[in-house]
Amino acid sequence: MTPAEAKPEPVADEPSDGSSYNTDSVQRIVATGTPEVLEAAVQVGVGLLDNLTAALTLDNEDVKSWAKSIKDLKERAKPTKTIVGVVGNTGAGKSTVINALMDENRLLPTNCMRACTASPTEVSYNYSQDPNELYRAEIEFISAQDWEHELGVLFNDLLDGNGDVSRDCTNSDSDAGVAYAKLKAVYPNKTKEMLAAGTPERYAKEPAVRGVLGSVKKLKATTAGDIFRRMQHYVDSKEKERGDNSRRDLHMEYWPLIKVVRIYTKADALSTGAVIVDLPGVQDSNAARAAVAANYMKLCTGLWIVAPINRAVDDKTAKTLLGDTFKRQLKYDGTYSAVTFICSKTDDINVEEASLSLGIENEISESFDRSAYLKRSKLDLKRKLGDLRDKKAAYTDTVDQIETKWDAWDELRGKVTDGQTVYAPVEKQHSRKRKRQSKPLPTRKNLASSDVDDDSELSESDCSDEENSPPAENRLPLTEADIDKTLASLKAQKKQIREDKRTLESEMREIRKEMDRFQAESDTLLGEMRAICVKGRNDYSRGAIKQDFAMGIKELDQENAIEEDETTFDPDHDLRDYDEVANSLPVFCVSSRAYQAICGRFEKENIKASDIGFMEAEDTEIPQLQRHAKKLTEAGRASNCRRFLNDFSQLINSMRLWASSDDTQSHLTDAEKRREETFLRKLLQGLEDAFENSVKDSITSVKQSLDEHIFESFNATIPRAVHDAINTASGWGAHRSMGGMYWATYKATVRRNGVYSGASGPRDFNQELFDPISRDLATGWERAFQRRLPIILEQFAANSKALLSKFHQAAVERAQQRHTNVHGVMMLSQQILAHIRTLSELPATLKATITDLQREASREFVPVIMEAMRYAYYTCTEERGNGSYARMKTAMVAHVETSKHTMFRQACDTVKTHLEAMCRAVQRQMNEHVENIFDMVFRDYTTVLGKQLHITDFILQIKKF
């Protein structure tokens, strides 16, 4: 529907029975409209509000109130955002998939020296209308405080126990090597000695660095390639160019200082409000970047997990889902249903292996046999073509020989003409040498001898040598006729050879055409076979990943059930419908490479998508992923539009009620008017009290649910965490055969407050200490926030709607009995319907608030544990010299022994405080919503049933509207 179609039609100044013309059409759109139709209606509504604003010229308190209401409503018409986080292991192809999603060959910046995204990269729609900034980017740098903190970590990694630069700095995979690379990038002219002598505080204050920290660099361009190159200047590393740092005019690099990159583009996939965020691991050594990544995870509406298809099934990626901690956090966040799985690199396939593993040999056997026949035939033709090339080369050699002889005999003819006596030339064998004669050509000699067999002199010259040549006195002089005869013979031979050569070249062209036809047919067959194998593998992987995902959730559910009460655990009883869980997981098997080739963006690589098994864009599943990205925004867009249109309808009706005039009330006596006003005020007071009680009852139910499912679990699980703490801490320093850590990894972990991601994978000491509580709490947390609280919110909305309906029914019955403002009462019915629709949307609004606050709360456990462990981490970090590892382990266990009785309770109490604050915030929001509804009800009902208004010029304008 276009905006014109969504626009309400004008009515007469005083409608008799269609007073709700505006709201009727709006309500129909709200009830049945698609997101696109709803958005068109919103734009029409904004235009109508602009017209109303222009009419608000009177200096009147009521008019000012209406103007403010209009302004507030217009603010709510802004587009909504749907944040989608993209996660995956190094080399999964996240950035490549996102580039294809954006319909760009290269847009996301990459670092060629590091195979992973260094900082979060946010890509959203570019709403700018400036043709000079079709592409925009913002590069935000970390603060001075964050950089000084990271410098402390880097110096600890770089320097050895003696305070010198570690010898491991040349190993790029070591902690010292990573630290050295970062420091040399930002401070390229510092020597190792200068770095060792410096301090984090001093280096953080260097002018060149201070000028960057905390700033935001804004870029704009008209092409993706241009914005990409400009971003690369900041994001990419110059290590390859720098080599051994022999140059002295090196410039500072920015990549270690980047906090987040934001890109704005006019990609259609983002046009409906999707914001795609390419996330690095949350174990980043830069605390600021790790915090940004963690914050995005908290805000994500959708979560896309990317894994190469050839590893996604074998590695059980969907089941392991990047680790139990990550999987458990999804349970806390309630985002399992928001997960989308993307299998990348589907063009990477071996037909023979795939057909065997998928059991589809019979399906492609005919094509495979035909392809093998074509391959053999092509090899045969290739050998034949080689023979013909040799023959052609022999022809060329023979022509060269004939031309040489022609030159010699033509010279003899000249001498005879001058009266000299000449003899037939005696030629040496192999007198002329050609490069290609280094290759043995057995057919050439035979060919040459047969071609000149008619000429006795030539035959003799081909098989004679200088020693066996007869002396000149034994030879007869040549006559002019002899010479002409020989020249004519050579000419005829040359002509015949050229004709034979043309025939041979024609045959060679036909063979090449045949080879091309074989190759084209072979490519087509291979493409078709690859397409069958790609589809087969996609279908198999899709089903396997869905099942693995469901089984991963099932295992976690069962683990939590056992921890909760092992005596009542029944493995045969499913805690949820896991088939539904599997079926609900969206899985896309994509080939970014094939999609880009089909779109003509890989011209330099000369890749044909059909040759790698993709006949059209839909086969790559990138278009489906683009539609999926747009579809993810539909719920949020529709909800936002409905709220706006509902509020718009209420506002218009309220203004029309305010501007309306009905003389039925003028027939009432003053006493009757007072009785009606008293009745209405009593009715309104009853509604206000009922609303207040409904809010209190709902919040009481919320608190009871938190007590039952979360707070009681604290008391049950804290003792278990206290009991396990020493074993957990001792395990970190155990022998490696018993799961312990290498001493350097242990040291690197304590340097980073217990959080580190090294070659052996990510470790988080704080989370590991908290795991006994986290495991048991996950199910109760999910039960409270994903099941119980939504029911409470729906009950609150239902109760509030019932209260409104009851109030309206009483008011209508009273008005009908008194025959008071019947026309206004009809409009009030429309208002009540609008308020009921507002209340229907309220649970979703409240749930969004609860989701944000509970996600924040669920992330407060571990920071409290980290803070309680900080002294142990500092003590261990400061240990140097002989026996330092033993002292570190002892100090760690001793600190855990001391802190275990308080830190877990502190963590749980902190979260409890956050959840209690959440309850207060939700209560305030409930009160605000019902108070707003009550204020509008009070205004509308007292306007219609409680008093007579005076008509002004502005009111007449409202009536016309």
Automatic annotation (TrEMBL):
Gene3D superfamilies recorded: P-loop containing nucleotide triphosphate hydrolases (3.40.50.300)
Biased composition (Acidic residues): 451-468
Domain annotation DUF7605: ranges: 734-899
Coiled coil: 487-528
Limits of the Dynamin N-terminal domain: 84-321
Biased composition (Basic and acidic residues): 1-10
Keyword Coiled coil assigned: yes
Organism superkingdom: Eukaryota
UniProt key word Coiled coil: yes
Region (Disordered): 1-23, 420-480
Keyword tags: Coiled coil
The protein, known as: Nuclear GTPase SLIP-GC
